[in-house]
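From the methods appendix. Each design record in this collection lists the tokenized structure first, followed by the designed amino acid sequence. Records were kept in a plain field format so they could be parsed without special tools. The example shown here is representative of the layout used throughout.

RECORD:
FOLD TOKENS (170 positions):
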């Protein structure tokens, strides 16, 4: 791999510390995660094992052997009739945002969901996150819901938007 080139690959357990750092930064400093307490390594390990056990992907973006982003999807809801719908996440390390890495991480998720015969992908996006909204719109996602004041973080109410991409006919 050439220096400074972004490589997208399947995550391994060796990547969990880098993934955890990116996720915890999002928890502490943003509204992209509606959680207030940083996760532990054991929590991320449980998450990783759940994703792998369910056959769901986790991709990482790597530059010069450093994890600079990750993406994944999982169950949208656990009830059986939702089995053809997944909800996904894309996170990029703060010092690598604005470089197109989110696009590189989102496309393989869409491709994998299609390979798995999923019908729909859902993105839950904080209503003030215009960058994520535009990213998803550029991939064909459409806004299907706007929930008012469903989260509370940093002393204020947060709105949540759902965007959806239909992948396959059933």
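DESIGN:
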């Amino acid at each position: 791999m050439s220096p400074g080139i972004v490589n997208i690959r399947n995550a391994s357990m060796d990547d969990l510390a880098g993934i955890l750092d990116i996720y915890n930064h999002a928890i502490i400093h943003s509204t992209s995660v509606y959680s207030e307490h940083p996760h532990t390594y054991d929590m991320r390990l449980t998450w990783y094992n759940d994703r792998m056990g369910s056959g769901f992907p986790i991709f990482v973006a790597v530059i010069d052997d450093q994890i600079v982003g990750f993406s994944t999807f999982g169950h949208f809801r656990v009830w059986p009739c939702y089995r053809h719908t997944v909800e996904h996440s894309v996170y990029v390390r703060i010092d690598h945002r604005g470089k197109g890495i989110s696009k590189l991480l989102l496309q393989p998720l869409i491709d994998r969901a299609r390979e798995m015969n999923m019908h729909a992908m859902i993105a839950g996006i904080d209503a003030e996150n215009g960058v994520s909204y535009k990213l998803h719109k550029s991939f064909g996602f459409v806004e299907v819901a706007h929930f008012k004041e469903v989260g509370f973080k940093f002393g204020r109410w947060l709105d949540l938007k759902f965007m959806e991409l239909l992948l396959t006919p059933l």
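APPENDIX NOTE: Helices lie at 16-29, 41-53, 101-115, 130-138.
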